[in-house]
Amino acid sequence: MFLKWKKNNRQALTFVEMLIVVCLVSMISIAIYRCFANGLAVWQRSNASIIEEDIVIFFDKIADDLRNAYQDSVMNAEGTTQKFTFPTIVRTLADDKSPSSGEYISQMGKVQYAFEVFEGRLYRRQANYGQAFDKKFSESQCLIKGLKDVQFKYFYAKRAENAGSDSVLSALPSGVEVEIEFTDQYGPRTLKKFIDVPLGI
Concatenated DSSP letters for 89-136? Predict the structure, then answer.
């Protein structure tokens, strides 16, 4: 009877062996947690820098569109504090009947930069000349995500006061100021850019 009990006892884990297993599991869990925490911190830092890069790219894009803007008696410029639409040269697919069918060409059209408050996203929409008459946009592209606010302010050289306006006066302004609010690892931040419009009034 004693021999049988001794044999069974050898097959079970001792208290020391249990402690060793618990210690090993704890050490592995801590190592996995640290790797996960470090990866999360790196992801948050890179995400914050991506927002800033996207804002700089947006500033370049709207400045390029405004350099190519033109006055049009039918397609007027329109603007509010969070939406700006104006005629400009756009890159779009050629019509099916044209010799350049299936290729991207530059032609007169219209673009719209719009901040959607509930989504926290800034969009760029564009239309060719025909679509602009129907007030439709064929392409919509999200330029920046995770924004707190976007404000457009319009400046006119012929206005008596120097202050910017919150709306477009049916013609291209001589300057546009864009202010963007966002939050990153440094806290709430604001980036601002003033863009000259060559053909502005």
Answer: EEEEEPPTTSTTTTSEEEEEEEEEEEEETTTTEEEEEEEEHHHHHTT-
Residue 69: DSSP 8-state: B
66-74: long-range pairs with CB below 8 Å, 24+:
66/176, 66/195, 66/196, 66/197, 67/198, 69/172, 69/197, 69/198, 69/199, 70/108, 70/199, 71/171, 71/172, 71/199, 72/108, 74/133
State the amino acid at position 41 in one-letter form.
Answer: A
The secondary structure of residue 80, as a DSSP letter, is -
The mean per-residue pLDDT over the stretch 21-45 comes to 81
CA angle 143, 149, 150 (to 5 degrees): 60
Q: In a 3-state reduction of DSSP, which class is residue 72?
A: coil
Strands 139-144 and 187-196: unpaired
What does the pLDDT look like over 140-191, one tens digit per residue?
A: 899 999 899 999 999 988 765 556 677 777 788 989 999 999 987 778 999 9
Which amino acid type is present at position 161? E
Nearest 5°: the CA angle 68, 69, 70 is: 120
| Each residue's pLDDT tens digit, 61-99 | 999 999 999 887 778 888 999 999 999 999 877 766 666
